[in-house]
Design a protein that fits this description.
This protein is an alpha/beta fold. The protein is built from 20 helices and 34 strands. Among the domains are: 59 residues, no CATH class; 66 residues, no CATH class; 83 residues, Orthogonal Bundle (Arc Repressor Mutant, subunit A); 99 residues. It holds the Pfam family LRR_14.
């Protein structure tokens, strides 16, 4: 059942839509972690009566919520026992010595009991203890701190939660409390949060480091202390959330300075004390109460992303002390010229607004450090005064159709984050131009992140400029982008030119993230094939549709994430991909992809073959499979000579193959070498016939839309199997550890050939039933 809510709909209209959708039907509804009863009383309670029958499961910490909803049966979850809590504590601290576990056990159990048996409290106190010497005396000192008995706090925030805040260094306390300006349960983006910390002045300058590097360290320290929860779907934990109890703690401790709600509801006596405002309102337009502008002392003003709001222009006159103004997604069409009076402003975020121009008075904002103008669909030019923003550290204009920029961006010497550097295509003898010269980058010595767009418009430069990027010692993230290809073919001259441009854009050795997008040269730059990028951790090659070979990146010692998308000229991926056969890597000498954890290959319509070794070695492996024990022994001996230990993908945990329509076979080395593989997802690999002999795959296998797939076999450690759109899958066997089988509705008939055997195997090996679930 899918019910779409339109932002223009009233509650009554949504109730009618809900009632008509479930009329005379049965439903099962889960309301998880309910803190407020309004969702039930104001929205759900009336329309749900239209259903024939229904079951509602509610989880909440508040008995009052359960009574208002009118639950029939209540199940109270027991608190964690002291002994289970002690195990969670020492395992969260990564204590491995049995003697140390025993020595600290009694004090540890006391600490667990002081945490009230709450897993969150145990996890945060574990990180407090981890920063101390692991002795009973040190732990006793922690147990004796006054923070355990802080009586002025609500009961649920006392003890370990408050202590985890109390022991933070001063600068981290500020950063933690600032997270209260985010709504409950919202995803927090690392870069947005750290920029606001910088704008508020929370980040102290450290020698040899940019403020952004220090702020990022603070962010990961809060994650390490379990005060922020990383989003598991973001590979580098660049997204996170805040547990509702920890957010309550931050809101409570900053309640006199931070306000979340409709500022119109506040009196002037309260509003003049507020320093940070997050606007959350049911109204369409937000206005501030009439009050003398000198009475407003707010330093941060944000509108909630949850609902686009109209913003009254008076805001720009009233909030004269602002440092952070975040109007992301607001219904703002113009910025008044008197924004230039906000002389304290350090961060201006207009991401996703409808503005069509910025006033030249923006040049008066001499303290402005961050200017976000991304996804502004109606904005086509930057004001001349942009180059007068002498303290600007970030300019973000990606996904905004800018075609006129002021000359002289190289004058912004503190600029370190430039998302959307447009390459000039025409004459640069005017104050305004359609992009910038690459040579202007030479003056930006602090660049930390750089997106170069429309690189096909660049012109080759002299050999004296080849260090354009190489000497950028702070550069960590680099995107090299051409315009996405049109239908017509590129001329040989343009292909040669773009290859030459990319060849000369040699990144610095300290680069960590690299994206190459819509490159239409036939060969990748040679610096990608050497050991030059020894610090690289993330690499994405997207829409590189003319390259017939992938670069040999298996030698990169720190590469953790690799994504390849729509390399349409690729028909075969062979040993050259890992470095074999090009003179810089052999299995006997090195490990290929030594730290790679995630490999994603998608939208490869012409890719047919995949191998990691030369053809004669593949033939020997095939012979061993067909020729019995003697051939197998010979191949084993040959394999041992080639690879005395795992030489390929030893850290690979996740492999995704999506829309690889012609791929016929998975390389057998995956089953022999990828010893850490936990997840394999295969989507729409129409020609793939077998998935077998992956003896180290230990978590999840998902196969969907694989029309020719016939066999899934010999996956002894797989615990979850998802299958859909595989009409010829007639054999699934030797999955001895399988716990759960998820079958899409189109698999019901064909799966009857092999589900009974899987169920029997489960019963024989484990004595219980295989869980078979309809997957929709």
């Amino acid at each position: 059942m899918k019910i779409i809510y339109e932002q223009c709909e009233s509650v009554g209209e949504l109730q009618s839509k809900l009632a008509s959708s479930i009329a005379e039907k049965s439903f099962f509804l889960v309301l998880d972690d309910v803190w407020h009863s309004e969702a039930w009383t104001d929205l759900l309670s009336t329309p749900l009566h239209a259903a024939a029958t229904g079951i509602i499961l509610v989880t909440t910490r508040d008995d009052t919520i359960a009574r208002i909803i009118g639950v029939d049966h209540t199940h109270r979850v027991d608190l964690m026992s002291a002994y289970v809590g002690w195990e969670l504590l020492w395992m969260s601290m990564n204590i491995k010595e049995e003697k140390q576990v025993q020595n600290l056990r009694d004090t540890g159990i006391e600490i667990v009991r002081s945490c009230g048996g709450l897993p969150l409290a145990i996890r945060v106190i574990a990180k407090v203890l981890a920063n101390q010497d692991q002795t009973e005396n040190e732990w006793r000192l922690i147990l004796g701190k006054n923070a355990w008995s802080m009586s002025k706090l609500p009961n649920e925030l006392r003890g370990a939660l408050y202590l985890s805040y109390d022991v933070l260094p001063h600068q981290l306390k500020q950063c933690f409390l600032y997270c209260a300006v985010y709504p409950e349960d919202v995803t927090i983006h690392r870069d947005d949060l750290t920029r606001m910390w910088i704008a508020e002045g929370f980040i102290d300058k450290q020698e040899g480091q940019l403020l952004e590097d220090t702020a990022e360290k603070y962010y990961y320290e809060l994650i390490h202390r379990n005060l922020l929860q990383p989003d598991v779907l973001s590979f580098d934990h660049s997204n996170c959330k805040m547990h509702d109890l920890l957010r309550q703690l931050a809101c409570h401790l900053s309640r006199e300075e931070c306000y979340v709600g409709d500022p119109e509801s506040l009196g002037s006596n309260t509003l003049c004390k507020i320093r940070r405002i997050l606007v959350v309102t049911k109204k369409d337009t937000v206005e501030l109460p009439s009050m003398d502008k000198d009475q407003y002392k707010a330093r941060t003003y944000r509108t909630s992303y949850q609902k686009p709001l109209r913003v009254d222009d008076s805001l720009f006159k009233q909030l004269t002390y602002l440092r952070v103004l975040d109007l992301t997604g607001s219904l703002v069409q113009s910025i008044p010229s008197y924004i230039g009076n906000l002389i304290h402003l350090r961060l201006l975020d207009l991401d996703g607004t409808d503005i069509s121009h910025l006033p030249e008075s923006i040049g008066n904002l001499q303290n402005l450090q961050i200017l976000n103008l991304q996804r502004c669909k109606s904005l086509h030019s930057l004001p001349l005064a942009t180059t007068h923003l002498c303290n600007l550290r970030r300019l973000g204009i990606d996904y905004t159709p800018i075609n006129q920029v002021p000359k002289g961006i190289g004058r912004l010497k503190f600029l370190n984050d430039l998302e959307g550097f447009l390459i000039r295509g025409g004459d640069d003898n005017t104050k305004m131009q359609d992009g910038w010269n690459l040579q202007e980058l030479a003056h930006l010595s602090q660049l930390r992140r750089l997106d170069l767009n429309k690189l096909e418009r660049a012109t080759p430069w002299t050999s004296t400029d080849t260090l354009l990027l190489t000497d950028k010692k702070h550069l960590k993230a680099l995107n090299l982008c051409c315009t996405e290809p049109a239908d017509e073919a590129y001329s040989e001259e343009r292909i040669s030119n773009v290859e030459m441009i990319f060849e000369k854009l040699t990144p610095p050795r300290n680069l960590k993230q690299l994206i190459i997008l819509a490159f239409f040269g036939r060969r990748f730059p040679t610096w990608l094939s050497t050991s030059h990028l020894s610090s690289l951790t993330n690499l994405s090659l997207i829409y590189c549709q003319s390259c017939v070979r992938l670069p040999p990146v298996g030698h990169l010692p720190n590469l953790k994430y690799l994504r390849i998308v729509r390399a349409t000229a690729i028909t075969k991926i062979g040993p050259e991909f890992v470095g074999c056969g090009v003179g810089n890597l052999r299995p006997t000498e090195a490990v290929a992809f030594p730290k790679l954890e995630v490999l994603v290959i998608e939208d490869m319509p012409n890719w047919e073959e995949w191998s990691f070794v030369e053809e004669e070695e593949e033939d020997a492996a095939a012979a061993s499979k067909e020729g019995g024990e003697d051939a197998s022994a010979a191949t084993k001996q040959q394999g041992e000579a080639l690879s005395p230990k795992s030489w390929l993908l030893p850290c690979l945990e996740e492999l995704q193959l999506v829309d690889c329509l012609k791929l016929r076979v998975l390389p057998h080395q995956l089953g022999q070498q990828a010893t850490s593989l936990k997840e394999l997802l295969i989507r729409r690999a129409s020609c793939l016939k077998t998935v077998e002999d992956l003896r180290f795959l230990s978590g999840l296998l998902s196969v969907c839309g694989c029309e020719d797939l016939e066999i899934v076999s010999n996956l002894p450690q797989v615990r979850e199997l998802y299958v859909g759109g595989c009409p010829n899958l007639r054999g699934v066997e030797e999955l001895g550890s399988l716990d759960q089988l998820f079958l899409y509705k189109d698999m019901q008939e064909i799966s009857s050939l092999w589900v009974p055997q899987l169920q029997e195997q489960r019963h024989q090996l484990h004595g219980d039933e295989l869980e078979v679930i309809d997957w929709h």
